[in-house]
Amino acid sequence: xxxxxxxxxxxxxxxxxxxxxxxxxxxxxxxxxxxxxxxxxxxxxxxxxxxxxxxxxxxxxxxxxxxxxxxxxxxxxxxxxxxxxxxxxxxxxxxxxxxxx
Length: 101
Prior knowledge:
The chain is mainly α. 68% of the residues lie in helices and 0% in strands. The chain has 5 helices and no strands. Helix 3 (60-73) packs antiparallel against helix 4 (76-90).
């Protein structure tokens, strides 16, 4: 039996398939989401300032990356939160509150 991948590691396999960068980016996003969720849970027991993602969405590139990460996750609640943060960061949230309420 001749196994092409015998002795190689999973990272090598992903590189050969052209998927390493994508998988690494997804893994980093999931770790960050997990850490954020864990920190938010800690907030209930500590006096921690609430994280406001909208404060950091200060360029089209960051907004695009943030939205893509939310879309990739597939969680509709996370997508709704991301859209709210994007609206808040661009001032669209204030405009909608004024026009719709």
